[in-house]
């Protein structure tokens, strides 16, 4: 069986290696498993996610069904055990990627959900929606821990479910696990802290569509509808001892195991992300 990616010489660089054909509609997003397994998940307007094994010549391993409308985006948890997919009709789904089964549907948004991202320790999930909100979730319980509103006062569910000039287009977690960036139709890029419900920094940006932090978290790149990419220096703040402890312990055990540690309740509270 041929390995992927195959060994190529310089003359073959840029050559098409695989063409994965099975979706019946536009493919909106792609994400690789972070564990290096070469598992790829594709999200499509055909209401499905498809799991591909690129080590096996792109064999399609599984079709994940559950969305009733377009799937806009998907993201793996850092340990590759969980996948989040978001889409039209308020959809936020979590999937077990060991069993390829749905874990739960997260309820809370009032409009299409278009972007998602896990925190670097996998303990938090950020979702962005046309309802003018970014939610920070505990993906292991389904609880909303924080709401970042892009319209004040917050719109009622009826207004949030319709057209407005505050649709949130993108959200991204910084690699420090402390900051989140969001782009909205109000021509702004916002930087948030996960423990504060107001932006710590705001900058102008027209036609923002997508954003991503650099690996060291010092720069945010944002792409726009008009074909430009802009860059910002990101907020640099010293994290608290609590945040460092929460991040550190999750490098060696998942959130579920943290909650089961035989330690005093005050210690568990200190190590937990809570509202």
Walkthrough of the structure:
One of its GO terms (biological process) is intracellular signal transduction. The protein is mainly beta and 275 residues long. The protein has a single domain (27-240), classed as YVTN repeat-like/Quinoprotein amine dehydrogenase (Methylamine Dehydrogenase, Chain H). It has four helices and 19 strands. The strands form five sheets. It has a four-stranded antiparallel sheet, with no helix packed on it.
CATH superfamily: YVTN repeat-like/Quinoprotein amine dehydrogenase
The largest sheet has its strands arranged as: 1-2-3-4
Give the CA-CA distance, first to last residue: 51 Å
What oligomeric state is this? single chain
Q: Label the structural class.
A: mainly beta
What is the name of the CATH architecture? 7 Propeller
Helical content, roughly? under 10%
Shape descriptor: globular
In CATH, the topology is named Methylamine Dehydrogenase, Chain H
**CATH class type:** Mainly Beta
Number of domains: 1
Rg, Cα atoms, Å = 19 Å
Domain SOCS box: 231-275
Pfam family, one: WD40
Pathway: Protein modification; protein ubiquitination
Protein name: WD repeat and SOCS box-containing protein 1
């Amino acid at each position: 069986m041929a390995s992927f990616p195959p060994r190529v010489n310089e003359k073959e660089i840029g050559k098409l290696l695989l063409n994965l054909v099975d979706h019946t509609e536009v493919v909106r997003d792609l994400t690789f498993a972070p564990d290096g397994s070469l598992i790829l998940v594709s999200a499509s307007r055909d209401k499905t996610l498809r799991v591909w094994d690129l080590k096996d010549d792109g064999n399609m391993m599984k079709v994940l069904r559950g969305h009733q409308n377009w799937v806009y985006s998907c993201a793996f948890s850092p340990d590759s055990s969980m996948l989040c997919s978001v889409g039209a009709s308020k959809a936020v789904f979590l999937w077990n990627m060991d069993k390829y089964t749905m874990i739960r549907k997260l309820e809370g948004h009032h409009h299409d959900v278009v972007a998602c991202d896990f925190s670097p320790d996998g303990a938090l999930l950020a979702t962005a929606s046309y309802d003018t909100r970014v939610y920070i979730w505990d993906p292991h319980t389904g609880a909303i821990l924080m709401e970042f509103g892009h319209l004040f006062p917050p719109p009622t569910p009826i207004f949030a479910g319709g057209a407005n000039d505050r649709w949130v287009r993108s959200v991204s977690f910084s690699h420090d696990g402390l900051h989140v960036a969001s782009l909205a139709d109000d021509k702004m890029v916002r930087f948030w802290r996960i423990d504060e419900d107001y932006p710590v920094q705001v900058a102008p940006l027209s036609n923002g569509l997508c954003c991503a932090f650099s690996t060291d978290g010092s720069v945010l790149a944002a792409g726009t509808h008009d074909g430009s990419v802009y860059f910002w220096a990101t907020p640099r703040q010293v994290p608290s001892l609590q945040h460092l402890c929460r991040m550190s312990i999750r490098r060696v055990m998942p959130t579920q195991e943290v909650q089961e540690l035989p330690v005093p309740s005050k210690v568990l509270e200190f190590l937990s992300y809570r509202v």
